Amino acid sequence: MSGRKASRWAATTMTALCALGILAAPTSSAVAQDWRALLTPVAKGDLTAVTALGDTQAYAVGYRLRGNTAVDALALRWDGRNWTQHSTLPAESFPQTLAVRSTTDMWAAGAGTAQWTGSTWIRRTLASDPGGAMTPESLALAENNAVWVAGKAVPGSIKDATPALQRWDGTAWRRQPLPDLGKGELNGIVSLGAGQALAVGAQFATPSQPQRPLLLRLTNGQWRPEPAPTVTGHSWLTAVTSLGASEAWAVGATTTNGVEQPLALRWNGSTWASTRVPSIPDGRLRSIGRTAGGELLAAGGKGAVSVLLRWNPAANGWERLTDPGIVTRAVSTVPGSNAVWAVGVGRRGDLVPQIRHTVR
Length: 360
What we know:
About 5% of the residues lie in helices and about 55% in strands. It is mainly beta.
């Protein structure tokens, strides 16, 4: 694991841990929802990503703390009744994101990427990037067994990073040519099928403008920037999902005077527009997905603040639901189900992994 990646991971973990014990209750207007806590086979550590293939099959990745400094990267599996350890990832892989195609084809990314082939995890070395070492932030499955990874190329300092994309073609990662986007990063990506995709992130601040959302679209084999709606203050996007050929959603946060608020954008197939979100300090959004019942959910939070929002078409805006009650790292809907998974660590205690589950 590179020093830059280790520092980034440690900073992210410590930022959340410093806030443990500071409880943040949902607003009085939150819609009630019951979350059920499930036992995890990890006594001390962290869970960073979760995804599901169905009600009886879900996976999570993270790490188990071994001693004061050593950790084991691992994957967990839900079989419909219990969470158990599925496998151990390569040493120092520090998985931060997960994509699952089947029981014999899973991908994790953090300090590099690794693929589960059905019996073992294999490191998959990222392609060289002239902009610097690539730091992966998001994975997305694509057609013909391809995989996308989005992140940033870091030449030496994070502040000088540039957006970066690579694609797994079945044998190797291939760097994707991008237009000159200046300094920034990509944090989320989704395939639209048939050679199309969307990627989101941030263009870093310059002396003349604040940090702002970065939106890219792949068409006809080329990635091009899309105009972003005007957002007050510094802003960025962390996740994106597609609901069809002409509907996608991206979420993140905006900050003014040091206070973060949720941010959600909607794409109609040609343009992006801002949507109305409730005011929630430290309410940055990290993930978004739709349940089988058609509910669009967005989740996130910063430190001990946990946030779950639902899109209300009748009100043309987002409303707050009861959150999972943990320091949320990731939330996932379940294909063909109204169930929702949330993983992270407890608000109190020292790195106590938590898994929450609800069916609406």
